[in-house]
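User: I'm curious whether this sequence folds into something compact or stays loose and floppy. Could you predict its structure so I can see for myself?
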Amino acid sequence: MKALRLGAGLLVVLALGCEGTLGDEGDAGWSADAGPPDAGPSDSGISDGGAPDGGHPDAGAPNDAGSPWTPPSDVFFVGNSFTFGGNVPGLVRDLAIYAGFPEPNVEYRAIGGQSLEGHRADTAPEGAPARVAEGWDVVVLQELSTRPTDRIGPAERFKEDATWFYDLAKSASPECEVVLYETWARRAGHSLYDSTFESPAQMQAELRFHYRDAAEHYIPMFATAARATDVRVAPAGDAWELQLAGGEPPRLHASDDYHASAAGAYLNALVIYSTLYHRRADGLIPLGVDEATASELQASADAVTGAEGYGAVLGTPRAIAAGSVVRVDVGPLWVDGWTPLDQLRGTVGPIATSEGLETSVIATAWGFSGVQEGGLADNTLGLPGDVSRDSLWVGTFDGHAAALGMEARVVVRGLEEGPYRIELFASRSGTDGGRGRLTRYRIGGVIRDLDVADNTSRTAVFEPVAPDERGEVVIRIAVSPEGGARFAYLGALRLTRLD
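Assistant: Here's the prediction. I'll summarize afterward.
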């Protein structure tokens, strides 16, 4: 059984200014990200193997030509501050990584106040036309936020420009899918409602109509590409409308009442992720929001996209016989018979049992700070020395108090219903100057603290553990508040199927 190794890469950022519209003043607090966001260390990506069962992560989401759907490898966004504000492309990439998909190369051309017409006229080598012409799996188009409306518009020009970009994308890559990123209405009380729109509902209705009309009628009718039906709408604005119907908080708009807050950007990313990956947003990692807010926004995203299924696991999880063990070496060293999870964020799998039997289990690391090989090789647990001495860690040299706000995760996916035993181990030599290395693991509401300093014999055991409705078990790793540790560790994971 070969392992699927999904690594962390780079998001290229090309963005300036903010999204200015008729009657709106620019917000001086909105500026471009001057360089690539922190994506963690680079990795070579998939080294070998494939998705569980040897197929695509979603054989049930074919394109309109009848071919199996394949997760996108390269995604390009065209837009303005509604794209780069909150780094929506980067959030989409991070959601895909956490869900267990191969990390996509995600880039964008986003200029403040720019329309698709303005992008279309950009002849610079770094301009949207030149970049789209490079060829992509997916091109995401976001129009100026008042143009696809009747009262400001011109909506017809939006559709003409979207069709032009559609043909350009398809000429460069015939299998490219074009996604129209539907924007959202201004917040109630915004100046546009004094003289232009009667209400946010009216503005959103016009946006919704013209984005859908572009995808369902205009582009299929006027595109010159051989196939003009693989264009879809990512209904972010609809998700805003649904979420806001329940009131605030969370506040989705920024202080200017038209850009997105962190919560709004996260909601946009959830909708686009589900549109691109044909998967529900439920259970994804919170990014820039707390967990309760994330759960609420995920529900709104799922309600408007109608996506089904979770993460990168294909179909029904494979059965694992009682007593069978799945073993993962968490750390940089590779050991025969153990699947190596050696990335700070990324996925391995499907993971065979210790007997060599195939499973649908994959494991995703998220949020670790570094790797280490300073544990003790000798142990009384029967672990190979290199399994015992290496680990991933989360924490900070800034001290215990700062480390308390940090958390890493390992998500084990592709588990069928039933009880499991999960055993966690880590070792690190020394006591970090007397601070200790007390690590806290949490699965659901159950907590186990493990002192990993000079550890050769202790493990944290969770039993029985039941996967959630997504077939997942989420293991959280952090420093324990009971000690003074700056760092927390995970070095090995053994999952055993019980009766």
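Summary: The CA atoms of residues 190 and 299 lie 27 Å apart. The longest strand covers residues 105-111.
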